[in-house]
Amino acid sequence: MPDESSRQANAARGAAISRAHAIYTPFMLSVYDVLVHGLSNRFAWRCPTRRLLDLYRAHLSADHLEAGVGTGFFVDHARRAAFDRLILLDINRHCLDRAGSRLAHFNPVLRQVNLLDPIEIDAAPFASVGLTYVLHCLPGSMSEKLVAVDHLRPLMGDDAVLFGATILGRGRAPNRAARALLDLYNAKGVFNNREDDLASLSEGLRERFPKVEVETHGLVALFRAA
Ligand SMILES: C[S@@+](CC[C@H](N)C(=O)[O-])C[C@H]1O[C@@H](n2cnc3c(N)ncnc32)[C@H](O)[C@@H]1O
């Protein structure tokens, strides 16, 4: 039987995980691409969306797993004509519904999973895994967030690439718009990135993969690991 303190810790963890994705209602998702990829990337995070699209166009394979899919924006805009396999993972049912219908022509498999729990999917390993704008949402320290990567690794083939991006909350100088959004989102628990910096991300990835590249644009760290 769990004691009272571990029961409380589990309840707090569950609440933090819920707060990090509760914002993704059908209405929010209908304006998400404009707000985030149209406005915030450019004016607050100072990372043009085309940099993120370049990452997808370079690494998205025909055998792809997208983790924390949101609206499916990047998979949709990556200019891939077809997939042998496409699986979309998200904790939030509304995200899966929206991305699933947007990408229906690719016949994706949808799975509702919490990336912070072990992922049980009975499928051969994938050649590429996308993880974009998810780590800054997840609660905990960088090493606690990267447990999500530990759960994705068994789903990657030997030569597979993990790629994506995250917004850093520490060690970069935010402009006024970024500071206001960081304050708001962290207060609401939508972001949990106050302690996320480039060193903890890079070191955490290097502990897990032999080949890691991380570059920054504004507050955004773009990474690829193989
Ligand atoms: C900021 S959105 C990014 C969406 C998309 N990748 C993009 O860049 O447009 C974060 C996504 O991660 C999902 N997410 C948050 N916490 C999660 C968790 N613990 N497990 C799985 N997905 C999670 C959210 O539901 C949402 O779809």
Q: What would the CATH topology be?
A: Rossmann fold
The Rg value, from CA coordinates, equals 17 Å
Q: Low-confidence stretches at least 5 residues in length (pLDDT < 50)?
A: none
Strand percentage lies at: 15-25%
Pairing-aware structural class of the strands and helices? alpha/beta
List cofactors, ions and other ligands.
Answer: S-adenosylmethionine
Structural shape: globular
CATH architecture annotation: 3-Layer(aba) Sandwich
Brief overview:
By secondary structure, the protein is an alpha/beta fold. The chain has helices at residues 4-19, 26-43, 49-59, 73-77, 93-102, 142-145, 147-152, 176-188, 198-208; strands at 63-67, 85-90, 109-112, 126-132, 156-167, 212-217, 220-225.
How would you sum up this structure, described in words?
This protein has 226 residues and is of the alpha/beta class. It has one domain (4-225): Vaccinia Virus protein VP39 (Rossmann fold), CATH 3.40.50.150. It has 9 helices and 7 strands. It has a 7-stranded mixed sheet, with helices on both faces. S-adenosylmethionine binds next to helix 4.
Pick out its properties.
alpha/beta, binds S-adenosylmethionine, Rossmann fold, 9 helices, 42% helix, 7 strands, 226 residues
SSE order and pairing:
Blueprint lengths: L3 H16 L6 H18 L5 H11 L3 E5 L5 H5 L7 E6 L2 H10 L6 E4 L13 E7 L9 H4 L1 H6 L3 E12 L8 H13 L9 H11 L3 E6 L2 E6 L1
Parallel strand pairs: 1-2, 1-4, 2-3, 4-5
Antiparallel strand pairs: 5-7, 6-7
The structure holds S-adenosylmethionine.
